[in-house]
Amino acid sequence: MKTTSILFATSEMAPWVKTGGLGDVAAALPAALHRAGNDIRVLLPHYPALRQAFPQATAVAELPALAPALPAARLLAAEADGLPLLLLDCPPLYDRPGNPYVGADGLDWPDNAIRFGLLSRVAALLGQAASPLGWQPDVVHVNDWQTALAAAWLHYEGGAASVVTVHNIAFQGCFEEPLRAALGLPEAAWRFDGVEYHGLLSFLKAGLQLATRISTVSPSYAREIQDEAFGYGLAPLLRHRREALHGILNGIDPVLWNPTTDPALAAPYAANRLAAKRANKLALQQEMGLDPATDRPLFGVVSRLTEQKGHDMLLALGDALPELPAQLVILGSGDKALEAGFLALAEKLPGQVAVKLGFDETLAHRIEAGADCFLMPSRFEPCGLNQMYSLRYGTPPLVQATGGLADTVVDVNEATLADKTANGFVMADGSTDALWQAMQRATIAWLDKRLWLRIQQNGMRCDFSWHHAANDYSRLYRDALAAHR
Questions:
Q1: Residue ranges of the alpha helices (H) in 96-202?
Q2: 354 Cβ partners below 8 Å, 6+ apart?
Q3: What is the pLDDT of residues 107-139, one digit of tens each?
Q4: How far is 128 from 17, CA to CA, in rounded Å?
Q5: Alpha carbon of 89 to those of 63, 77, 101: distances in Å?
Q6: What structural domains does the chain harbor?
Q7: pTM tops 0.85
């Protein structure tokens, strides 16, 4: 089968720059496509973390100013485990500490339109005959609003086929109209069927309107964003382009997330050796200052603490945890009121609730292994990865049926137990009462050790490795190329 040459443009890439699922996807999907024999290169800004990680990166192209607002830059080449990287080097725009999108004050960098306008413009340039590399991909694959504008240049100026992936449609990259000319977009682009969106320049809307093909990170999310409740104003456009829209479920790294070999764990275990999982629960209880209880389940959370993730509902139920009875361990940060609320709950229920604010990758692995049940009551979840990690680790997830959660978690009931697909607990709706009822169901199931073992093993048999998504994207690229021609 003929392979495809691909430019994968992204604003973040784990482990160096990561704020959410995009960073994980940018690390895993290109690597899987590369292993499958595709000629793929990843374009991303030359952030400080990448300067440190790749000090020997070599300059491969000098880029002049490409528009009135876009400064000159250069491209550096590096490799990450054999995967070619192209680092967009422009220190005034990218040599900044911390988060790639916001400053220390928590506010968006005021020049984000320029920073990611340049990234998008260079992604498009590399997909055109004028590419300074002497290499032109068949497909330019862009991700979220930060690179979606590349599809506009490719549409108006010609070049490679384009695919835009929506990781979270809530973030759309909207800016004032004068930026259209400042970024070098043609006047003809300022139309309802171009880059204009309610009087603003929207990077994401431009990509959704003008890309050859559109993908999202799960089949259910592809359906949901065509409805007004989830489309954040873009549902009519997505319904118009539904033939171009595809939902492809993200994957996980089965080597990195493997309870048999995970160095972070107190004891390795597998689906046929789940008794050893108990040692991880005890170790986690000791580490987090919880009572070493064996007579109640331990619920785990690793997440941004936001209402989108449903954590306001969980906090509202906190005082009732002793009634189940159950313990709760939380790792995350986010909304300050939720942070303060969970810290107060931990102080009120010592030994039963433990909270660590921030992020700790190693502790995240230990929570996946040590918890009995993983909580993800998200109001919307484009894909979600933690439920897949949890299934891999024999920690049945409790979720709301939305996005990728609906595509991966099968509720425990008589029929799904009979066909051996039951692997978690799905809330009846998005209410606090439904969350409480699902937690009660999970607690009752946990008390039946034979039943719980069946649920665990069903989940551990699931295969969410990236090669499935890589195969689906390979088909999507071929479809985009056929449509483009």
A1: 112-126, 144-148, 150-157, 179-182
A2: 288, 289, 290, 327, 328, 329, 330, 346
A3: 999 999 999 999 999 999 999 999 999 899 999
A4: 27
A5: 10, 10, 17
A6: 5-251+466-484 (3.40.50.2000), 274-460 (3.40.50.2000)
A7: yes
